[in-house]
User: Fold this.
Amino acid sequence: MLTLQIIETAYRATLEEQDDPVLWITQAMRAAGGELAVLLRANAVNYAVRAQDCGGLRIGDWKQSQPPRLAADVQGLLAKGVQVFAIEDDLVERGIGASHLIDGVTRLQRARIGELLEQFPRVWHW
Assistant:
């Protein structure tokens, strides 16, 4: 069954797990034949930014040796045929222009969310 994953909370567990759990489970479900799409909204629109580097995090003597690669995760979803949407209004609020986005991410006006939701029999909001 076609499912839309709405990701609103950004960077959830990215230090402990080195990836976003929702992106990870979406990849796993897609690999198992699931039909999925992702809508990035609020702070999660940052996941669609092509040039991001989460390396260099250090807390005391501890250094994050395997930082999250969220842009690569989003690109991987797109490569597997998962549609990825980002709310245009949220991108603008954060100063993220179209030239900064990963190719293939579809920008969607907030006012059109209802139209998108109508296309999916199941919606999961994270």
Summary: The helical segments are 14-17, 21-31, 70-79, 88-93, 113-117.
